[in-house]
Amino acid sequence: MNQDLACFSEQTPATPLFLLSSTTWPAFLAAQTPAHRAWLSAADFSAKPKQWCLAPNSDGQIAFVVVGLEPVINLYALGKLAVALPLKAYAVANEEAFSSQDLYLLSLGWGLGAYQFTRYKKAPRACGQLVLAATIDQAKLHAELRASYWVRDLINTPATDMMPQHLGALAEGLADHYHGHCHQIIGAALLTHNYPLIHAVGRASIHPPRLIDLRFGDSHLPKVTLVGKGVCFDSGGLDIKPASGMQFMKKDMGGAAHVLGLAQLILQQQLPVCLRVLIPAVENAIGSDAFHPGDILISRQGLSVEIGNTDAEGRLVLADALTEASSENPAVIIDFATLTGAARIAVGTEIAAYFSNDDTLAYALQTAADAVQDPSWRLPLFQNYKHLFKSAIADLNNAGSSSYAGAITAALFLQAFVPNTILWAHFDIMAFNPSTSSGKPAGGEVMGLRAAFALLEAWYC
Q1: Of 133, 179, 262, 423, which sits with the fewest C-beta atoms within 10 Å of its C-beta?
Q2: Any idea what the CATH number is for the domain that residue 120 is in?
């Protein structure tokens, strides 16, 4: 599903694109012809952030475009222009005023804004093209965008075409392309191989549940394991969601989409790691074989779990996958999941909440996130809240006894399945834009992926 990067061009000459701020605007304006000064004045352009304006030649063609920027470069400053400007090639005319990193971020934002989901409907229009500056790492830029496009495509695809078997086929394709290995444990075999929680959540669906296990690279290299929640549709199970709660539940496999996209980026950029990707892929359906509130399930690790709510299924499938991930004692485990509405209440829809059992890892992850402008924020693994998911008849309850601290209690539940000796980070993400904004079309969204990649790149390159 990776899309071609039609938003970039090597065409020369290209229409000049001047990126200006309140400090550079006066000198730029003074250097223009009287006609252009009059035009820009009439257009009320003053280089305020998010402003842009076309300036014509005497023959009515576009002479140049001016864009207002914030004092500190914002990744999404050019995000809307790819689909708003006339269909031409554009090049930053004052690129000497910016660092290579700034130009990289601006170009990435242009590319993110150019994304359109076209599997079922033709794009309403083509996008303008940006000529990339020679100073930026174009191969890395293309790899980041292709990974982001793929993640968005996977999340945007409705459940009818994105069930566990479809995720499995996509994983097989990734393994084939990058000379890795993909093994799938499907249906009743999950019980044979001791993945009871994954099986219980997915057994009511006509689409058999599975654990997708991908491996790449030399086993002597540092072991990095990614785990992604692959709930391809979440009805809530017997604790059924209301219709409004199910509307966007095709996105509940957003964690799986993220680890597939991150894996592709790691492989494309050839990070020197031994990579493993685990995806518990299920549909949380309603049927005669559905698991029940009050059931006691024994996890792969051996801990017993009382089902307080069948709609808290993501942590169940992740528990078995994290237990398996930990069995090889990797250098680091990073999981992604559309896990709780509580995380959205805490940080909103544009920030990736994350947790970690290690302060050094958490600090490095925050540093990486800030550097690449991938908004992320650490929430605490506050141990005093463990009592909120205690059970009188089992080791754990999958649903807390309180509506408070939902994201934290979910993360604490997962922590029970990861030894403290293994570095672990858990992303609780929205993975979806409720509406369109600059660089962020409505629909599937990438959150925390670039931060995680920047961390791994800093550690292992």
Answers
A1: 179
A2: 3.40.220.10
The answer to whether residues 35 and 70 belong to one domain is: yes
Distance (Å) of CA 202 to CA 196, 205, 234, 250, 387: 10, 6, 10, 15, 28
255 sits in which H/E element: helix 254-268
Same domain, 122 and 154: no
How far apart (Å, rounded) are the C-alpha atoms in residues 136 and 141? 8
Domain boundary among 104, 136, 168: 136
CB distance 325 to 228 below 8 Å: no
Which of 136, 155, 170 is at the close of a domain? Answer: 136
The catalytic position among 48, 215, 241, 378 is 241
Global pTM reads 0.97
Mean pLDDT, consecutive 10-residue stretches, the chain (461 aa), reads 76 94 95 96 95 94 97 96 95 96 98 96 92 96 98 98 98 98 98 98 98 98 98 98 96 98 98 98 98 98 98 98 98 98 97 98 98 98 96 95 93 98 98 96 98 98 91
Residue 241: active-site member: yes
- Among candidate residues 315, 344, 440, 450, the one labeled active-site is 315
